[in-house]
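Weekly structure sync, notes
Attendees: PL (lead), two postdocs, one rotation student
Agenda item 3: pending single-chain targets
PL asked that the sequence for the first pending target be pasted directly into the notes so everyone works from the same version. It is reproduced below exactly as submitted, 221 residues in total.
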Amino acid sequence: MHFTALSSKSIPKQIKTILEFNEKIYKEKNSEFIAQAYPVESIEQSDEILGKVRKKYFDATHHCYALKLLTGETKSSDDGEPKGSAGLRIINAIEHFDLLNVMVIVIRYFGGTKLGICPLGKAYYQSAFNVIKNSKIIKMKLYQQISVQIEFNYISQFHRIVNNFEGIIDNSEYSESAKFLLSVSPDNKDSLINDLINATNGSIKYHCTNSFSYLKSLNNT
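Predicted structure, written out during the meeting:
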């Protein structure tokens, strides 16, 4: 997810989310709860996913869901279930794992036996909990982009310093000089620039952009 013209202080330096789609089925008194977890980045994306799910599972009794985004936005629906028994419980499961940019949809096929409000809420929570627990949870670190221009004879030092600070080279261009677009943690930005200045005897040209993005941490397994 990319952000432009934002201060790094206004967004978390690290978030947890899920890597990819996952599904888990939970059953309670003949009712079947199909829980699906999705990584999402916007309300619009979640609406598109929900539309496809409703179309695929058109014969389901309910399509309840909740999502929580990095932007602070949350959205949920009980989709005809008693108020607070589904959407809120799914949100609770997402928050239990401290996740952002995640949507969980729980598709229910009614089994003929009413569960009651408390057991129903527990079933939705457990369904969402199970699918998240069985998903690949990853950490995403905040990176800031920096444009750098150096002379060719400093390229080896440049690569060494970038590697030392776990920077990522997004783009490179070679003409009269070497030009790079880097992504680096805001915490490492100043130290990386200082080392580059020292290594190039002050000849480096650089610009710290206002473009931020979240990238998967190098230490994720």
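Discussion points:
- The radius of gyration is 23 Å.
- The chain has two domains: 20-135, 140-216.
Action: rotation student to compare against the earlier draft before next sync.
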